[in-house]
Design a protein that fits this description.
This protein is of the alpha/beta class and 155 residues long. The chain contains 5 helices and 6 strands.
């Protein structure tokens, strides 16, 4: 089961974690962006450059992601779409988005969007901290461990 990355907004430090994990666990990793990306040479890591335009990368991912796949993204509408297809999502802060919590996150995102469009100034996301990186690494490792269990059951 591959990992899909909404790479336009994924912090470099998390990409590095993902590169190492893809190599170590031999998991396909697709980084999708509307600009060229530098990636390490690997049979498991692919950069996909899509056309410029609103949500082009999101649509590319949404059309190709499958149940059980993992998405790395902070885009809540994209996360909601892929979770509805049976995939999971981890945000850059290490929050796992699942069918159990995605509707609450989408509701909160939409409320914030309404407030911003009404002129209310909200603070942006806080910088990625060490605790966020650790939480991301933990969630990624848990997903990878589940993939190893599934593969062993299939064999």
């Amino acid at each position: 089961m591959p990992i899909w990355v909404d790479a336009d907004s994924c912090p470099k430090v998390l990409k590095e974690m993902l590169f190492k994990a893809a190599e170590r666990k031999q998991v396909p990793l697709y980084l999708v962006a509307n600009h060229s990306l530098q990636i390490p040479r690997s049979p498991y890591i692919r950069a996909v450059q899509v056309e410029h335009g609103f949500d082009v990368a999101d649509r590319y991912i949404e059309e190709r992601i499958a149940p059980g796949d993992l998405l790395i993204s902070n885009d809540i509408p994209l996360a909601a779409a892929v979770v509805a297809k049976g995939a999971l999502c981890i945000t850059s802060k290490g929050r796992l988005l699942t069918p159990d919590n995605i509707s609450d996150r989408l509701t909160m995102r939409n409320l914030q969007e309404e407030l911003r469009s009404g002129g209310v100034q909200l603070s942006g996301p806080s910088p990625l901290g060490q605790q966020d990186k650790q939480q991301f690494a933990n969630q990624l490792d848990q997903w990878l461990q589940k993939q190893v269990k599934v593969e062993k059951e299939i064999d």
